[in-house]
Amino acid sequence: MKTQLRILLCAALALTGYVSAYAQATGYPNKTIKIVSPYAPGGSTDLLTRAAAELVGKKLGQAMIIESRPGAGTLIATRGVKAAEADGYTLLLQSNGFVSNLHAFKEPGYAMADFKPVAVLGKSSYVLMISTKGPARDIKEFVEYAKGRNDLSYGTLGRGGRTHILAEEFATRAGFKWQDIPYKGGADGVNAVLGRHIDGYFASVALAHPHAQSSNLRLIGIASEVRSEFLPAVPTFKEAGIPQMTDDLWIALFARSDIPQPILDTLRTAFREVSASEEMKVVRQRIQMSTYTASLAEFETSMNAALVQTIQEFKQHKLPQQ
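Predicted structure:
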């Protein structure tokens, strides 16, 4: 009898939890939804997010606002959303740093299991740009030039980030050495190449695209499996004989992992439908970002694989944790 009562009690508690979550979902959303961004406003990522937020807000019948909380390598924003209520009214915007920070920092303040993906808004890759005033015209010539020098440098957005790891991976695979120089933003890195303060910089496709026909900058390689639809003349590192140099750049939204499933489903459905709309296709084309076509389950698998890869890269290149 006591065993049966226990079973009934557990079932009742489980049902209460489900009913509570469902009750939240049926009235969701009934107030403004906030997307916390770790990036300063005005860039291509901000434009992409605002466009998606406006369309999803109209679909759900509630406003969606973007709140910028830059700093600490995106940790401020990520920790802030982790500390917020798991009610679907506070979402996190993130990119590849969301994964690499888990190992780049000794105490990132969050784990992969703390969040669930809501939507992947777009994807891109990284392009190596150099000055046209140097002797190299392609990857092969740049490597030959680099092997004969010991004073080369490259720009990064911080040690342990993707631009840093990509540059180190390139040097290791090609057999040369160069020194990292940190910059606060991608535009600073581009300007440093223009001024010949550094010898190379891995910029996003969106940042590199305006310079495709530049007489001062040369785009010599893209770190993706195939050539970019936006920079078709730029060869992949794979074509140059360095197939390991592939690294997708993605922009995604996350929610706390303990968000009620019906609310998560509501958000995922809305963003999925909006992402497939003609309006968002136009926005992505404008900022040179491609559509992410894989499922969210595949995206989670790729993030776990990327974390393993990051740990291996830190060991291989002897990068210190912050």
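Summary: The CA atoms of residues 84 and 90 lie 7 Å apart.
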